[in-house]
Amino acid sequence: MPDIRLHSKIEEIPRDDWNALCGTDYPFLRHEFLDALERSGSVTAKSGWQPLHLSIWQEDQLIGVMPLYLKGHSWGEYVFDWSWADAWSRHGLDYYPKLLTAIPFTPATGPRYGINLPDEESITLLSQALRQISERFNASGWHGLFIEPELRERFEKNDLMTRLGTQYHWFNRGYNSFDHYLEHFTSRKRKNLRKEREKVIRQGVTLITLSGLEITEEHLDQFYNFYQMTYLKRGRQGYLTRDFFSLLRTTMPQHLVLVLAEHEQRFVAGALSLRSSECLYGRYWGCLDEFDSLHFEACYYQGIDYCIREGLHRFDPGAQGEHKIQRGFEPVETWSTHWLRETGFHPALRDFLNEEQELLRQEMTRLAEGLPFRQNDN
Q1: What is the pLDDT of residue 74?
Q2: pTM score, two decimals?
Q3: Which InterPro entries does the UniProt record give (predicted)?
């Protein structure tokens, strides 16, 4: 039987071993990304994110790893279970702490573990281990967020519940330019989008796209001011510290893409994305001054331009935002998986998830009807 160990810091697990198991193309599961969150103070036990990373050993050989956190709240997750916590409270039960496998503050579908075992055996082993860890820490259960869709049935076979969500992604269907992309729009939608881009130009705003080590610490200083402004407008502080971004630049610069907007010889807004070999992930945005349509230009159109130039197949611009539909971002499924210790809640939760799934599928069908593409051209 493999030996399961828990780690309060990801640095306790060798970086090269972690990356060999999890891969290095999907940026958010890289050891460097998760370590940057911890080393920068962005993810701490004090902030309600206690690292409990899981490692699996067989005869002193590391064969598996999974990011794991003991959570004291549900902030920064983007799969909303506040109503579940309320239900526990109404019955005199504690929903927190709970166990969570996710990339903190990152609603981006991707791998959530790396194990050198057959798939079915891996899921069974993880399911058993997570149940035992939940008991040990008196956690209400375990949640795996933004899992790869093909894992859904495997988790369900191990008596875990799965939950459907939706996002809006852009797909590169062999476009050779932004204008080529717009040729697939209906005339009216194409005209509307071009007007949006022209508004930014008429306001005297220019944009540059930097990647890798083209991004300097001075650029990051500017960007971080914009990032914090986004949260300050809502009366909050950003989740991520300034050091986090420097650590990314130092340890994994090849994944970074920064769009900066300039007006009257000063930077006024920025959008930072991460990339894999196939996908651009829009992550962080902020601005000092408000300009008509600049958010759409910096966060969406510059990203589409970049994907076309670089030959990336997909652009995931982040959670929520039905306004993305009319700009060519298509509804896609996202999945999470859940196991709760209190079995008495299971029937009601399964009914809720089934009903929610049916309603979401209807909504996705309705939203897809608003896509700007010509008929039979998407």
Answers
A1: 96
A2: 0.96
A3: Acyl_CoA_acyltransferase (IPR016181), FemAB-like (IPR007434)
